[in-house]
Amino acid sequence: MAEVPARRTVIPRATYRVQLNSGFTFKDATALVPYLAGLGISHLYCSPYFRARPGSVHGYDVVDHNSLNPEIGTREEFEQLVATLRAHAMGHILDFVPNHVGIMGAENAAWMHVLENGKASRSSEFFDIDWSSPNPALADKLLVPVLSDPYGTVLERGELQLRYEPGLGSLAVFYFEHRFPLDPRTYPMVLEQAIVRLGRAEPGLRELESLAAAFRNLPDRESCSAEQSIERERDEEINKERLAALLDSSPALRAALDGAVEELNGTTGNAASFDALHELLDRQCYRLAFWRVAADDINYRRFFDVNDLAALRMENDAVFDATHGLVLRLIREGKLDGLRIDHPDGLYDPARYLAKLQERARQAIAAEDTPAAVADERPIYLLVEKILASFEKLPQSWPVHGTTGYNFTSVVNGVFVDARAKTHLDRVYRAFIGDYLDWADTAYDSKVMVLRTSLAAELNVLANQLTHIAQADRHTRDFTLSNLRQALIEVVAAFPVYRTYVTDVPSDEDRRYIDWALARARSRSSSTNLPLLQFVRSMLLADTANVAPAWHPQVRAFAGKFQQVTSPVAAKGVEDTAFYRFTRLVSLNEVGGDPESFGTSIRQFHAEARSRVRSWPHEMLATSTHDTKRAEDVRARINVLSELPTTWRKTLQRWSRMNRGRRTIVDDLPAPGLHAEYLLYQTLLGTWPVGEVDDAASSAYRERIEEYLVKATRESRRRTSWANVNEAYENALRQFIRLCLERRDGNPFPAEVAALGRRMARFGFLNSLAQTLCKITAPGVPDIYQGTEIWDWSLVDPDNRRPVDYVKRRRLLDEVKTWGAGSADSLPERLHRALDTPDDGRCKLYLIATALEFRRARAALFRDGSYLPLRVVGKYAVHVLAFARKLNDEVTLVAVPRLCFRLLGDRHLLPLGAEVWLDTRIELPRKLAASAYRNLMDGTTIPVASREGTRSLQLADLMANWPCALLTS
Questions:
Q1: Judging by DSSP bridges, how do beta strands 880-887 and 866-869 pair with one another?
Q2: Residue 810 CA to its chain's centroid (Å)
Q3: In-domain check, residue 397
Q4: All residues at 6 or more sequence positions from 152 whose CB lies less than 8 Å from its CB, including other chains
Q5: Of the candidates 304, 582, 578, the residue with the CA atom closest to the CA atom of residue 435
């Protein structure tokens, strides 16, 4: 029998991210495959496509991990997508969501079962619910903050409607689309009212009375044992079937029940008529509440502060098994090559989860092939959506291939920021807003605000856990709840990373980050006493040395829960608040970025790339994602402001005077405020449409800017917020934008924005081309977010989820594929024509298609090759980033320009030729022994010059026809 070759992990060559929903389905993705194959993509990178809440535009509100989303397509359509990918030698990877599921509505069967049965539910251990809340009103109850107004108001408006569900034989209360099943043990409260309406001789009456008794005698959900829970579930289903059959067979009984339901639903205007429904609801295992109550009292863990996304206890093996059946089957069948794991920091123990996932994948593959047929330690390509601080490293013990690339986004973006301008831009920013803002203070204050508002309930849970532990020991029992809560606020707000990963033995990194946070907290608040902080430290490290054995599980549980809180606080406090408050140069305010890190040196870029080769050579490289605050091309253009701070200062002063009369007064303050105005001007310069724009396009653009600024100001929580919308302020902001952008005589503002925007766009284009070539050729797996293969001026979601015009992109790809097909002399001419009219994005598409085609031809070089920084010398050496990739005798060289405004000013349109680059050259080490190189960008051959024993390539030759160079020996 022939030996079956071992199955190897498939490492993508290049990925293309698509957002699947009802507007872009499996069928649409299938139709896109030939285009992506022609572009040079190896893997379609899909947003979540398992069943989600109806109407979901993103798929992260999964309600069933084991079925496909019918709004995206059928199983047959999915199979057709897979077959089409295979036919084009492509595969796909999936964005998988293990941390949370969508709730509310009526679609999540596990959540419905918990609402119906409380702690007795077989699904109660799936969710992170605190059934022993210190709030007496929530004892053994689940808070469901879903109501648009206070409970009593909603109840007496008649919006909570009791219904009988004939297909299920069940009773439930509905609040619009939300379903809340009744505990079957409380059915008699409804059935007995129906019985009263019937005559004693009514056929079926005794059966109905028997059913009421049977429901009443079900085991109590709050005190039943595990065996009784099984008995309860069995009997309640039998009783429901009996009820459904009885009511179906007797119109009189059904009419009596309908009458009882109608009476219980009350009469609007008669408050007393709702008493019975209130009593019925009060006996359920859930408490329906005004959505604002969630901030203080919610007792289930959520995804960040989103009430309708409940966190899963993925550390529970039963939860893992229940949610990974379909994804493991797709892996076993070879229909899925890899996974992006969404928000791993929300998991109790990410390392254990990832190891289990890889092991289950290994077992699934072996079951399909033969035992021990998996060759690699990490059998599937696995990425984690992990935000790392600039000084932080992904744990080497994690069995993954790296992160989704936010760290690369930050590093490569910084290459095109002029670090020399930091002090100048600080002064410009602070002078305009009239305030001295410091990034570290802004981030700290924002995290404190989040802890005291939207995530206060999570903080309360931690504080109560910590207080119970402290009270158990005479040395710590004097630490009060108030003091411990305040200490936790200060430590969490000062945390330098998203989270630690303490299990039994803390790592050196975990100890360092915890000590760092404690030192910061101590320096910011001298009122916190040292013994208390030392106690907190020991708990964060899960140190049980001085704790009675009976309390060891509680200490470990506290340390674990603490780690699940720091991550959402960082995300909500930094990404979703501080980034919208501190806006000095917003191209730096990106997921995974640090606005205080003003620019990336060439040396830093090289160091990061070499580190990636050593540790995570197959990590994803991203420049735009569905979560980025701005598209890569918007950031690239805004970066140009760092090269012209004086122009920016003068422009701000002029525009502010020009638009002064368009402000109004709201709450005794100017509206919009100066913070919003400063952000608006940067946003306009970063997104201003290139080329001619008609009235319809201009109106659509203005609406997009309005929606973005309203979202940004809500996120900043200064004058308005999501929780407390200030309509007067938001209307004033919208009016200001409309008046500023009004196209009419006598309003010079749009023309001025257009003039500076086009000037910046010219250099933004160069930045975009350069960072794109770096992404495709640096160590890692390059990812292209949908539509960004040509210029993209999108802002944060939902703006970046707009439909993509693939008809245009296919046409442009067909065109650029012909550029190199003619004579060798024709290509430079075509490149120059394209560079003269860059607005349609052909230049970017040409670069991507050319580089990805080369990456396809030299797949091993880019997958496994080393990284060699190259030394640039000459007058304009600081304006060039150059490196080589090498594998055995295969070599490729990359050179891109940077800080082109400083280089060119208004002297030249493009950084091409000897007149620009003068004596600037790349020195080649001995290991790069070729005598000449071919530039794939323009088809030219460039000889290696030798002078005084030094071999080099002249920038004037490399960039004679195209502003980036991709060379092969």
A1: antiparallel
A2: 29
A3: yes
A4: none
A5: 582
Q: Which of 442, 618, 898, 467 is nearest to 12 (CA)?
A: 618
Q: Which amino acid is at 325?
A: G
Q: CA end-to-end span of the chain, whole Å?
A: 45
- Full 3-state SS string of 171-231: EEEEECCEEEECCHHHCHHHHHHHHHCCCCCCCCHHHHHHHHHHHHCCCCCCCCCHHHHHH
> How would you classify residue 803: left for phi > 0, otherwise alpha for psi between -120 and 50, otherwise beta?
beta
956 in the same domain as 881: yes
In the block, tokens 């075509």 appear at 830
pLDDT < 50 positions in the chain: 1-2, 371-372
941-943/866-869 β-pairing: unpaired
**799-805 long-range CB contacts below 8 Å, 24 or more apart?**
799/704, 799/707, 799/708, 800/624, 800/626, 800/628, 800/631, 801/19, 801/57, 801/58, 801/626, 803/23, 803/24
H/E element, 293: none
The number of folded domains in the chain is: 4
Q: Are residues 283 and 346 in the same domain?
A: no
411 within 8 A of 533, measured Cβ to Cβ = no
How far is it, in rounded angstroms, from Cα 903 to Cα 963?
13
Determine the Cα–Cα distance for residues 151 and 278; give it in Å rounded to an integer: 10
Q: Across-strand partners of 943?
A: 932
Domain boundary among 271, 303, 335: 303
342 and 299 co-located in one domain: no
| 3-state class (DSSP) for residue 121 | coil
As beta bridge partners, residue 7 has: 374
Tens digit of each residue's pLDDT (9 = 90 or more) over 92-129: 999 999 999 999 999 999 999 999 999 999 999 999 99
Contacts of 941 (CB under 8 A, 6+ apart): 932, 933, 934, 935
Which residue do the tokens 């003039």 mark?
755
- pLDDT tens readout for residues 306-365: 999 999 999 999 999 999 999 999 999 999 999 999 999 999 999 999 999 999 999 999
DSSP for 393-454, written as a single string: ---TTS-SS-B-SHHHHHHHHHTTS-GGGHHHHHHHHHHHHTS---HHHHHHHHHHHHHHTT
How far apart (Å, rounded) are the C-alpha atoms in residues 17 and 45?
4
CATH code at position 44? 3.20.20.80
Which residues form the domain of 84?
15-99+312-404
Those residues with Cβ within 8 angstroms of residue 505's Cβ, 6 or more apart along the chain or in another chain: none
φ, ψ of residue 895 to 5 degrees: the values are -140, 130
Cα–Cα distances in angstroms (integers) from residue 262 to residues 159, 185, 193, 568, in the given order: 13, 20, 11, 44
Tell me the whole-structure pTM to 2 decimals.
0.95
Backbone angles phi, psi at 543, to 5 degrees: -85, 110
Which residue type, as a one-letter code, is found at position 478?
A: D
State the Cα–Cα distance between residues 897 and 955, nearest whole angstrom: 10
